[in-house]
Amino acid sequence: GILSALGNFLAQMIEKKRKKENSRSLDVGGPLRYAVYGGKTPQPSPPR
Hints:
The chain has helices at about 1-20, 20-40. By secondary structure, the chain is mainly α. Helix 1 (about 1-20) runs antiparallel to helix 2. The mean pLDDT is about 70. This is PXMP2 isoform 3. It comes from Pan troglodytes (Chimpanzee).
């Protein structure tokens, strides 16, 4: 639903940022993407 669409949007934004600033986003983008994709799975995740 809305959450997965929002997660998709966030993932795209993170990917674009990662391409622009590779070195810095590798630290931040990894956990962020993990959290975003983790939210798509059935297992519960903390609300953002």
